[in-house]
Amino acid sequence: METFLTYSPIIVVILVFLIQQRIVVTPEQLEIKHREILNDIEKRFTSINSHEDLKAQFSEIKEKIDKIYDCLIISK
Length: 76
What we know:
Blueprint (H helix, E strand, L loop, with lengths): L1 H19 L6 H18 L3 H28 L1
C-alpha cells in the first residue's frame, strides 16, 4: 500500500493525461461513437436483403429482354 502512496502523484498525472488526450474513453462515449458509425454505414451501404432483391429484379429484366429479343428474331 505504501508503494501506491509514493507513486500516487505520478499515477494521477498519467491518468489525467490519458483522459485529456482521449486515449481512454468512457463506455458512454464508446456507445455514442458506435451509433454514429452504424448510422453512417446505413447511409452509405445497402443491406444484404435489398441487394438480393435487386439481383432478382435484374434477373427478371434480363429474362424479359431475352424474350423480346427472341420475338424480334422470330418475326423477321
